[in-house]
Amino acid sequence: MSTGSKLAAVVLTAVLGTASAGAVQAAASQPSTGKLQWTVNGQSSEIRTLVLNGQQLVSVSDAAKALGAEVEIMPEGAGIRITLGEHSVLVKAGSKPLNEDGTAFGQVVQSWKQANYVDGASYVQALGGSYSLLDGSGISIQTLQLLEGAETAQWAGDGRLIVSVSDESGRTDYLVDATTGAYSQLLSSSGASDLVVSPDGGKVAFSETDGTLRTVDLSTLRMAKIGTDTSIKSNLQWSADGKSIYFLQGDKTNVIAAADVATGAVSKVLDDKVEYKGDLSVTAGGLSYSVVKAGTVTADASKAVDLDDVSIDDSQTNPQLFDLDLSKSDAKPVQVTKSDDGKLFIQRSAAGKVYYVQAGDEGSNSKLASATAAGQAVAFDKEDVQEAVQAGSYVGILTDRSVYVLNEESGSVSKLADAPEGASNLALSKDGSKAALIADGKLQVLSGGKWISLTK
Amino acid sequence: MKWYGKLTTLTLAATLLLGAAGGGAATAAASKLSGKIVVNGSSALLPLTLQASNEFKKLNPKVRISASAAGSVTGPQAVRKGIADIGACDWDASTDVPGFSKFDGQVANKVAVIPFAAIANKSAGVSGLTTKQLQDIFSGKVKNWKDVGGKDADIVVVNRAFGSGTRVNFQMKALQGTDFITKGDNYKEVKSSGDMKTAIETTPNSIGYIDLVYVTDKMTALKIDNVAPTTDNVINGSYKVWSYGYFMTKGQPTGATKAFIEYIQSAKFQNGSLKKLKFIPLTAMK
Fold this sequence. Notes:
The complex is a heterodimer of chains A (456) and B (286). With 456 residues, chain A is mostly beta strands. In chain A, 3% of the residues lie in helices and 48% in strands.
């Protein structure tokens, strides 16, 4: 645009005041128009843009509509007031916008072909929203207050996630809407176990530091105490029918027990004196667990301490996995692994396979493996596997760069998306279609092939 | 036994909850940290070590950790010998304690607070003893329960074997340094907390001592000088029979060993898994 040229006067929907002489701005180049995608609270809209002097501005009216803001034309040509919640902005062509305190911000408002254009980022932020790029294509905007911080996430029923945040005093669990990020507090505790979601997604179970077992109905938020047993409990797991809560009992976790949710009665499922069971996983028809053996120490206490007469054999201290058929009352556990390797993220599928991440040594990839009584097999070794999570008949796989989903029924593995840098805590919905994880301290949900932050 | 814990549930409101939640450190992605850590020593600390190991390895999958226990003294011994990276010990082995000289050059890293209890078979008929009475029983001066308010029956003293950190701490804190009886028809020694638990539960008229997590309703946890062995009483200072649990290392810890110790000392582990295993967090002690 040549020096001295003018932009058209501002007109917005109804009749407005005339643009003042100061509303036009000399520009060094011809402006160009275009469109930009905004995703506001999970909903996408197309916003008209104006590129002027290398800067992209957005249509005030398109943006207001996308944000769900109120638009008011001020009298006597004072401009247009856009209000969203507690925040408002006054826009007038040729001047910088003003926030509700009367402070100018951002770039001078430009008018072009009967529309006002502003700098999108400062406009959204002045209205109380957060503004971020979506991998360079489109803009993600949140106008709802977002939960701050996220450490772990898991899918509950009806499209919500349970997100946990810890601090010095304990842990707080929240229910977060997976589309908008709207959240509400579910539980605040000090020392309670992680929440375990029931198979139907409608309840969570946890144990307190004194061993008391409780459930919370996620619809009514009613908490129930399950029985009176206060033995040490860990590795809580719902039965497939949601009627029992299994757990490892005792500080040496040598007993597998189950509490009846209706009566609170606790019964022993397996008491074979084998200590240090872990990674309990219960599905229809069976359960699996790991056993870690302590190293064998030989020490002669009669000898002088200075002689350091002690030796350690730690050759068998990697965990081994066991499976128990719950459909037979007299079933004995069956050892399904014998390999001397680290095994992590151990979970049993409904089909009876025990999936786990086979930890690699320094410089070599970790793999996803599976085990049954028939033997062990590698299920995925394309990239360095960091986590695996069982969900229905799917296994979510988080590698150092990607998220994959293994369909147990078909055996196929498909890539869901690239993983954000530093991702952890992959959560997969039971139908394998929804994924969430934690990256950069934020809960991120996969939406339209992109990771959207639902916390700040 | 009362454990502390705060539990509140807020009703779901129709509107959004504003304001920041207390933000703790985000859970880290799997690290590239690698190496092997060998932990040996205290049987009291073994459940804690294994639980921490299980959690730590999910964050650091290329680190291998093995844990073993044969009594506290074998912890710093194994470190000194160079066959363990961490010696789990119920006393600060960089200092002299009754029966054991200090292990030079080792650094004591606190990891937990361990409460201990004097325990008796239910048949003994007593609910508490004074320090003097405990000293007299464990030294062999008093041989019958009737002399301390119980029934007329010979006392069976069950002791831990030499090298046990539980034994060192009970002698220092409950017996004020008084020597143990070492032999006799009514004297037994056991090698671990688990063996002590079994002995007291099944041996009529027996007395012993154990870390608090092993106390069951099949034995009596005795008051000492009229103070009950509870975590609350450890924290408020009225019950004295406790010690810090230590991870002894050769010099300052580095690499994977340092990361593992820091994980156990983290607020998340201390306030979560550690408390569930009936230990007391380090921060609870003033």
